[in-house]
Amino acid sequence: MVQVYLTGAVSDFDDPFAWHDDISNDSRFEHHTFINPYTLNDFELGDDDVYERPHEVVEPALEAVSESDAMLVHWDDDAFLVGTAMEIMQAYASDVPVVVWYQGWRDKLSPWILYHTRGTFEDLDTAVKVALTFGGDEYIIKEAI
After folding, report:
1. HSE toward the beta carbon, residue 47, CA cutoff 13 A
2. Long-range contacts of 104-112 (CB under 8 A, 24+ apart)
């Protein structure tokens, strides 16, 4: 079983965790664990109380990143992803491989993102399988061929 930390842009306002849930509920990945950082604390998305108690957001997230086998990042050019950038650095420092799912409008991602990650993919399914492979699942890519 591989544990993958899911971070980055939310899906949309009405269903912010759709991409997290799609992966977690996909029967092909049922033997793996996917961590949604928004479930690691008692705050709701947009809750202003996070500014009074930031440690309750940051500390469990950093611990979960370090304990994961891989990280999958949903990068969006229009999203404010300061926390995601910090999580990428934590993963890199902890030798947790990082894979980026990126459907952006720019030709290239920041060199900082590219340097600290193992690969960038436009297709979510491919990005998940690559993250699982880097995390230790030797069969997930073979099963797709």
Report:
1. 13
2. 104/75, 104/76, 104/77, 105/77, 106/77, 109/75, 112/85
Fill in the amino acid letter for 10: V
Q: What is the dihedral of CA 19, 61, 105, 28, to 10 degrees?
A: -30
Q: For 33-82, give the secondary structure using H, E and C.
A: EEECHHHCCCCCCCCHHHHCCCHHHHHHHHHHHHHCCEEEEEECCCCCCH
Residue 145 three-state SS: coil
Please name which of 12, 34, 10 lies closest in space to residue 23, comparing C-alpha atoms: 34
Q: What is the pLDDT along the chain (145 residues), one digit of tens a residue?
A: 999 999 998 877 677 788 999 999 999 999 999 999 989 988 877 788 889 989 999 999 999 999 999 999 999 988 889 999 999 999 999 999 999 999 887 778 899 999 999 999 999 999 999 999 999 998 887 665 4
**In CATH, which of 1.20.1530.20, 3.30.1330.200, 3.40.50.450, 3.60.40.10 is domain 3-144?**
3.40.50.450
